[in-house]
Fold this sequence. Notes:
There is one protein chain. By secondary structure, this protein is an alpha+beta fold. The protein has one domain. It is built from 4 helices and 11 strands; from the N terminus they run H-E-E-E-H-E-H-E-E-E-E-E-H-E-E. Helix 3 (89-98) runs antiparallel to helix 4 (151-158). It is elongated, with a radius of gyration of 19 Å. The termini are far apart. The chain crosses the membrane at residues 5-23. Keywords: Membrane, Transmembrane, Transmembrane helix.
Amino acid sequence: MKKIIIISLTVFVIVLASLYFLFDFPIILNGNQKESLIESDTADNIFNPIKSIDFNTGNNRVYLYFGNADIAELPKKMIKSKLFECSNNEILQDLKRDFIFKKSGGDMSTCESKLLVYKNDKLVFCTSFVLTDNVIGLQNSLAGWADALNQENLKNNFLKFKPTRKIFIKL
């Protein structure tokens, strides 16, 4: 009996280690992610797509999901990770204040990363997203490419996000 338990545990550890080296953790199970409608606040095409979300109450969570190619381009002060999350309402309020973008009228060729906002476990905003030392922007089929107007403030907010240490996560 003891031998069976030891063999089972050994096989389990080997399978888990193999999965770790074969897959890029966390393994993300994609739910129904749809882009959210973005409306301009002014004729200058300036907008804040999360301005109507109340981060003062409820279970709020923002995820930054980075494609493999984008991880290497993250700001120098940011830990290299595939997925970051923040559920601190105070930080999310600061993010909301600084989350102002201006449409450029163009498109970014390939944007693999996503920014996802959840309110009470329901996806309320999702868009393609770029975060580097020099560029912060959104890519959306409805708005095209939009540059952040408060890049340093946004970068400082994103530095407060924590890498996710889960093996599986459903977004």
